[in-house]
Design brief:
About 20% of the residues lie in helices and about 55% in strands. By secondary structure, it is α+β, with helices and mostly antiparallel strands. Strand 13 and strand 14 form a beta hairpin.
Length: about 325
């Protein structure tokens, strides 16, 4: 296929292509096997060869089923050693593997990716991420939107740094998990998300059992589909100017909120040495966003209903009040 263009943050671009090796002999699992390799420009591949000893940065093996479905296995090599452009920085990347499956119409897709670990270390400290996982199962629905569930997890992140300005900082988070679900309901879209962690410790101060459970309901499906299309077009035309994204969103906001959407923080909770901190929040539009509200956003508070429930341990609350008073 023709090369595609990869825009970089520096507003430069480089051509890349995919090289396919196709085996069309009948297989027990399908009618075709395709081995694909990412081919990068010579100036890029020469630099990467120092890291991966000539192995391709990304390899994909795809089996095409007799009914047109596909299953792709992805692999990327690891590297451990100094960064060639800055040998004071040690990099330990343990590789990547994953799989993607799709039906013949590309309307039902499932995927999973796993990376055992990644770490950076220099004279000021070390950052380590271990056991990174991602999975999703989605179906293409109305207005070209995707619906389904996704999840990501990380077993541990450690940050251990020391600078002359701030001194030593040690942070560790264990077993962070994120799950999302996007559902279609007639003309509306509901989105749920939940973030949890077992423990976070920063310089000896520790909290545990963190939960952040949030929901966005009653978004207008047609407007959300138009918004996605508009953002994609802007990114293709002006990929180096993210500020245009907000301008592209504005024409769709009135329609997006036409179904009186609701935002709910269903649970916000963490255990601290002083006790449990928890809270809930519910916000809902009681009327549609008319032209007057769009022109004068201060009128928005007249059509928003807010319910808030928060609970703090008494020692923490007294400490906050004391600090506020002294300031």
């Amino acid at each position: 296929p023709p090369p595609f263009r990869c825009a970089a943050a520096s507003r430069q671009s480089a051509a890349a292509s995919l090289l396919h090796h196709i085996n069309q002999l009948p297989l027990p699992t399908g009618m075709m096997r395709v081995q694909s390799e990412l081919v990068l420009p010579a100036e890029v591949s020469e630099k990467l060869e120092e890291y991966f000893n000539g192995a391709p940065l990304l390899t994909a093996q795809t089996v095409v089923g007799y009914g047109g479905s596909t299953t792709t296995t992805l692999t990327s090599p690891g590297y451990s050693g100094p960064l060639k452009s800055d040998e004071a920085l040690q990099l330990d990347w343990q590789g990547l593997e994953g799989s993607i499956s799709s039906d013949s119409q590309m309307r039902h897709v499932s995927a999973s990716l796993s990376a055992p670990g990644l770490s950076f270390e220099d004279g000021e400290g070390k950052v380590t991420l271990s056991q990174l996982h991602y999975n999703t199962e989605i179906v293409r629905g109305m207005h070209d939107l995707w619906f389904g569930t996704s999840g990501a997890s990380m077993e541990q992140i450690e940050i251990d740094v020391e600078t002359p300005e701030s001194g030593p900082t040690r942070m560790q988070m264990n077993n962070a998990r994120l799950t999302t679900e996007q559902r279609e309901d007639d003309t509306r879209v509901d989105i749920d998300g939940k973030l949890t962690f077992d423990t976070i410790e920063v310089n000896g101060f520790s909290v545990s059992d963190g939960v952040y459970d949030v929901a966005y309901h009653n978004l207008d499906a047609a407007s959300l589909g138009q918004l996605n299309s508009s953002v994609k077009q802007l990114m293709q035309e002006q990929p180096q100017d993210p500020s245009l994204l907000f301008a592209g969103m504005m024409p769709h906001l009135q329609g997006l909120f036409s179904q009186k959407p609701e935002l709910a923080i269903r649970q916000l909770q963490v255990e601290t040495p002083m006790g449990t901190v928890s809270g809930k929040l519910h916000m809902a539009l009681t009327d549609v966003l008319n032209d007057a509200v769009m022109q004068d956003p201060t009128m928005l508070m007249d059509i928003v209903k807010i319910d808030l429930d928060a609970s703090l341990p008494k020692p923490m609350l007294m400490g906050l009040l004391s600090t506020s008073a002294s300031n």
